[in-house]
Amino acid sequence: MAKELKIRELSPKLLEVAKKELNEDPKRRSADVQAIRDWLKKQPHILAAPDDQTLVSFLRGCKFSLERTKEKIDMYYTMRTIVPEFFGVRNLKEQAIKEILENGSFFPLPEPDDEGCRVMLVRPARNDPDRHPMELVFKVVMMAMDYMIREDDQMLICGIVSIIDLENVTLNHGVQMTPALIKKVMTCSQEGFPLREKGLNYVHTPPMFETIFGLFKTFAKEKLKKRMHAHGENMESLYKNVPQRLLPSEYGGTAGSTKELNEAWLKRLRTYDPWFMEETGGVDESKRPGKPKTHQELFGLEGSFRQLTVD
């Protein structure tokens, strides 16, 4: 008899979506988790022992395809070793990280959209690019993603929709968004996290936007490219993708102020402070069966494309 898993129970509504859209079968779930555990035992290079909830999160993010789940878990732990700039020492109390979080540069909204997707508000210009370089901002974003894949069943099962507000973004923000950084961010988020990005909505876009937008599209999978929408200053256009009522008051919605929403989010995230401090897990490439993976192989840019700069 399959061992009972230590995971959160889903609401009947979410379970129905998981069955229909993610191929989740509650009767087979324990066997699927055990199959991944058995595979992990044969991967001497992966230095981690994920709990049941984490493994179920990856299975859901991969629609219960065991092979895809194995690939994603391998990439998830590979990133932790090969991209120390995102996954090195992570301390919520570190001054710069604390400031990025308190600036309200990104947080999830309380209510899902009409499709059940979690809505995330991202405001990069809340950070001073001299004090908070974009690389550090993305490190904090990865911390948030780590929390959400473990705690937000709504997001895992129905997906995530992002609103990226570029109001007050400066050239100094833009020049830090190099092709190398964008490729790293897109590869980590698309290949290493069990996330289902259902929409990217850009608002208040500056003149330099087209160049950076083009770069993100270059490294995005075809499915994601079709889900990228630039609304400019047209909020009515945004409301067609994200219901107005769900948004903070500053965006014409009734969810509360951005300050209140960010404070509520930080309260939840800070419960993970010990986890971030104690987290272990990564890879030992010298023990990987077959050819070791390298930073260049995963994130290198082709020839002349490396020279691309933002005008």
- CATH architecture heading of the largest domain: 3-Layer(aba) Sandwich
Morphology call? globular
Gyration radius over CA: 19 Å
Name the average pLDDT: 91
Element order, helices and strands?
Answer: HHHHHHEEHHEHHEHHEHHHH
In the CATH scheme, the class of the largest domain would be Alpha Beta
**Going across the major beta sheet, what is the strand order?**
1-2-3-4-5
Q: Find the CATH topology of the largest domain.
A: Phosphatidylinositol Transfer Protein Sec14p
Task: Note poorly predicted spans.
Answer: 303-311
Count of individual helical segments = 16
SS class:
alpha/beta
Proportion of helical residues: 40-55%
Number of domains: 2
Tell me the total number of β-strands. Answer: 5
For the sheet with most strands, the description reads:
5 strands, mixed
- Strand coverage percent: 5-15%
CATH H-level superfamily of the largest domain: CRAL-TRIO lipid binding domain
**What is the rounded distance between the termini?**
62 Å
Summarize the topology:
Elements: H1 12-22, H2 29-41, H3 52-61, H4 66-82, H5 84-87, H6 95-102, E1 106-108, E2 118-122, H7 134-151, H8 153-158, E3 160-165, H9 171-176, H10 179-192, E4 197-203, H11 209-218, H12 222-225, E5 228-232, H13 235-241, H14 258-269, H15 273-278, H16 295-299
Parallel strand pairs: 2-3, 3-4, 4-5
Antiparallel strand pairs: 1-2
Helix pairs in contact: 2-3
Description:
- This protein has 311 residues and is α/β, with parallel strands linked by helices.
- It folds into two domains: 12-86 and 279-291, no CATH class; 89-272, CRAL-TRIO lipid binding domain (Phosphatidylinositol Transfer Protein Sec14p, 3-Layer(aba) Sandwich), CATH 3.40.525.10.
- The protein contains 16 helices and five strands.
- The protein has helices spanning 12-22, 29-41, 52-61, 66-82, 84-87, 95-102, 134-151, 153-158, 171-176, 179-192, 209-218, 222-225, 235-241, 258-269, 273-278, 295-299; strands at residues 106-108, 118-122, 160-165, 197-203, 228-232.
- It has a five-stranded mixed β-sheet.
- Helix 2 (29-41) crosses helix 3 (52-61).
- It is globular and about 50 Å long.
- The protein starts with 11 loop residues before the first helix and ends in a 12-residue tail after the last helix.
- The model is unreliable at 303-311 (pLDDT under 50).
